[in-house]
TrEMBL record:
PROSITE patterns attached to this UniProt entry: HTH_LUXR_1, HTH_LUXR_2
The keyword Lipid biosynthesis is annotated on this UniProt entry: no
Alphabetized GO MF terms: DNA binding
UniProt-recorded name of the protein: LuxR family transcriptional regulator
Record Pfam families: GerE (PF00196)
SMART domains: GAF, HTH_LUXR
Stretches assigned to the HTH luxR-type domain: 158-223
Annotated source species: Symplocastrum torsivum CPER-KK1
InterPro entries: GAF, Sig_transdc_resp-reg_C-effctor, Tscrpt_reg_LuxR_C, WH-like_DNA-bd_sf
Length: 228
């Protein structure tokens, strides 16, 4: 039963928060695809790319260098390296043996790509195939839907964190949990996008987190406290 798509669909639907999806559910999904490595990531978690970014990370996140990532961004569709590249070419792009085969699928919300689910296999293992892509496509639909539900739920804050955040910062935290961008939050609150970004930096320092997703996970619960 644990190796069936229906079991995975149920596990996704029953996940109580993003942390459960990333951990226990993703372990089961990774095993389903007999992957060496796997992960669920969001675009707002990716580090800014600059001169200090390690070369391998910079290349991996470069749409010019990474055709698999470019395919995902342009088409919002699952793909593995042999769909778009001749056999053996991926090895010249990514020399890591444990990334010898890669497959990624989209997480979408309101028509936008907001993240992805990725799997790798050691180059000594068989490549991903068409059936894997079909299964991943179905899983991405369920993941996108469940994540949209989770991110639309108001977020509860502990009394300690209520004291740390100002009322305006609490408003911003709630809108972040709903998946809004800094520009969209600014429009809702009638403040500039830069004001939102500066507020988020202060909030990250107060809560000792480094990303929006980490902040939401720390503040997660049933309902965002309105009386902070």
């Amino acid at each position: 039963m644990a190796n069936s798509l229906q079991f995975l669909f149920q596990a996704i639907a029953q996940a109580q928060d993003e942390r459960e999806l990333r951990q226990s559910v993703m372990v089961t999904v990774g095993e389903y695809f007999t992957a060496t490595r796997w992960g669920l990531s969001f675009l707002d978690e990716f580090p800014a790319i600059d001169a200090n970014t390690p070369g391998m990370i910079r290349l991996a996140l470069s749409l010019d260098h990474n055709p698999v990532l470019r395919y995902l961004v342009e088409r919002h569709a699952p793909v593995h390296e042999e769909v778009i590249l001749p056999p053996g070419v991926w090895k010249t792009i990514c020399p890591r043996a444990d990334h010898g085969h890669v497959m990624i699928g989209p997480i979408v919300h309101s028509g936008k790509l907001v993240g992805g689910i990725a799997f790798t296999r050691h180059r000594d293992y068989p490549a991903f195939d068409a059936q894997n892509l079909a299964d991943l496509s179905a899983l991405c639909l369920h993941l996108s839907s469940r994540l949209a539900d989770l991110r639309s739920q108001p977020v509860a804050m502990t009394s300690l964190n209520c004291k740390r955040l100002t009322p305006r910062e609490a408003q911003i935290a709630e809108l972040v949990a709903q998946g809004l961008t800094s520009a969209e939050i600014g429009a809702v609150l009638w403040i500039t996008e830069n004001t939102v970004k500066q507020a988020l930096k202060r909030m990250f320092r107060k809560l000792q987190v480094s990303s929006r997703a980490e902040m939401v996970a720390q503040l997660s619960g049933s309902q965002l406290a309105r009386s902070c």
